[in-house]
Design a protein that fits this description.
Elements lengths: L13 H11 L3 E2 L1 E6 L5 E6 L2 E6 L2 E8 L7 H9 L1 E6 L5 H6 L10 H5 L3 E2 L8 E2 L4 E13 L4 E13 L11 H4 L3 E2 L5 E2 L30 H4 L1
Antiparallel strand pairs: 1-11, 2-3, 2-6, 4-5, 5-10, 6-9, 7-8, 9-10, 11-12
Length: 225
């Protein structure tokens, strides 16, 4: 049996708690969010504390932590306008996404400074990142303060999907062709790597990938000892 290091989470220092969470919860999908303030200034920033939270209607959630002096620009914009777009990050736009994580002044647009090409959305005023293979237009449904209040979960309803033709056959998205980038702990990112194909044991909405069969797990040699 492996030896474990015990870390008591009660009263844990915030910096260490962050390192532990982002190091243990991996890989994490990246929400490359475009948002816009009431003056029309467009902001782009990546967040990896993000996932889908509902399917009826489709909704996603992203946790945006506050800075020492207040809300980040993305959070301010979402609360101000109630709209944002999540642009999926693939290997080809990883460098641009990473550059947009730098600290920019509130009156400076990352998209303008970095030359990020934008295209109009159809249901929200916030534009999309042109070279992102998937873009999801969202309207804010609710914001929920978490823990001590430094973190806020912004839950958005997806009101429109935009997916490259070669990735979507009308039924499913081809994750392999998408080639998404995920966040690891520290300075590291990852691509998909090895793919494991297993039938769905529980039937999901629509039944995609599900096989009606009794699943009998096989123990490996270590488990049998």
């Amino acid at each position: 049996m492996k030896n474990f290091k015990f870390v008591d989470a009660n009263g844990l220092d915030t910096a260490l708690a962050y390192k532990l969470v982002v190091g243990c919860v991996v890989p994490r999908p990246i929400a490359w969010i475009t948002s816009m303030n009431s003056k029309g200034l467009v902001n782009a920033a990546p967040f990896s504390s993000y996932n889908y939270v509902a399917t009826d209607p489709p909704m996603l959630g992203v946790n945006i932590a506050s800075k020492a002096h207040g809300l980040k620009d993305t959070a301010k914009n979402i609360l101000e306008t109630g709209e944002f777009v999540v642009n999926v990050v693939d290997v080809d736009n990883m460098e641009m996404m990473h550059a947009s994580a730098a600290e920019f002044d509130a009156d400076v647009s990352e998209t303008s400074s970095l030359g990020i090409e934008l295209i109009p959305s159809l249901k929200v005023k916030v534009p999309r990142v042109a070279n992102s293979p998937i873009q999801m237009e969202c309207r804010l449904d609710q914001s929920v303060k978490l823990g001590a209040g430094r973190n806020v979960l912004y839950i958005g309803e997806i009101v429109a999907f935009h997916i490259w033709d070669e990735l979507f056959d009308g039924e499913r998205v081809d994750s392999i062709k998408l080639n998404p980038v995920a966040r690891l702990g520290g300075p590291n990112y990852s691509a998909l790597g090895q793919i494991f194909n297993k039938p769905m044991i529980q039937k999901p909405p629509g039944g995609e990938g599900w096989v009606n069969q009794v699943f009998e797990p096989k123990l490996n040699s270590k488990d049998q000892k």
